[in-house]
Amino acid sequence: MAGYGNDSLKLDYSIIMDMVRPGSSVLDLGCHKGELLSILIRENDVRAHGIEIDEKAIYECVALGIGVSHQDIDNGLSEYGDRSFDYVIMNQSLQQVKKPDMVLKEALRVGKEVIIGFPNFAHYKARFQVFFKGQTPVTQSLPYEWYETPNLHFMSISDFRNYCRKRNIKIKSSAFIMENRMINMFPNFFARTGIFLISR
Predict the structure, then answer these.
(1) Which of 24, 81, 147, 163 is 20 to 30 A from 129 via CA?
(2) Taking the mean position of all CA atoms in its chain, how far away is CA 129?
(3) Which residues, at least 6 apart from 114, have a Cβ–Cβ distance to it below 8 Å?
(4) Is residue 102 within 8 Å of residue 72, measured between CB atoms?
(5) pTM score, whole prediction
(6) From CA 58, how far away is CA 50, in angstroms rounded?
(7) Beta carbons of 196 and 118 less than 8 angstroms apart
(8) Average pLDDT, stretch 21-35?
(9) Could you give the count of Cα atoms lying within 13 Å of 48 in the half-sphere of its Cβ?
(10) How confident is the model at residue 3 (pLDDT cuts 50, 70, 90)?
(11) E-only strand ranges, the chain
(12) Cα dist. 30→72, 90, 180, 196 in Å?
């Protein structure tokens, strides 16, 4: 979840908070330092657990009182039963895993509903940088140079919608962020972040 300004983080979190029913159970894949889970516990009274691969981030989760497992989600979620959580969240982590197709299948198996948030690689600022500069884009939502980015996959909002259609995944709701506000018009061009609530 690195690389976002504070205002953007708050809007991401606010949208996800509205998607999560109070009192539900949540598994956050790639929970980083536990900021989102901490807010969901406090504001939505959820029962929360995180999975994170970065040991330093895990220490910060523990300091916040959040239960977290040290695990590589590219290896699957075999220790969790089918539909064992109300929600599985992957906010700004799907594009960083090696096997996004497998990880999404596992998330949809373990969670009754899944919330995915990711940077939109087709955002107009990224398109312009590729077209006019001929360079890998560096934007507010894609803040890393090509040689240091943790992102392995650069999908667009249209890519994700097509993926869901091919895999028969139901998109229950969606929200799109342009700069520091929500938009609905031409999100594949104008939104820098897409957030989807999906299920089988």
Answers:
(1) 163
(2) 24
(3) 87, 88, 89, 90, 104, 107, 108, 197, 198, 199
(4) no
(5) 0.91
(6) 9
(7) no
(8) 97
(9) 27
(10) very low
(11) 25-29, 47-52, 68-70, 85-91, 111-119, 170-178, 181-183, 193-199
(12) 9, 7, 23, 17
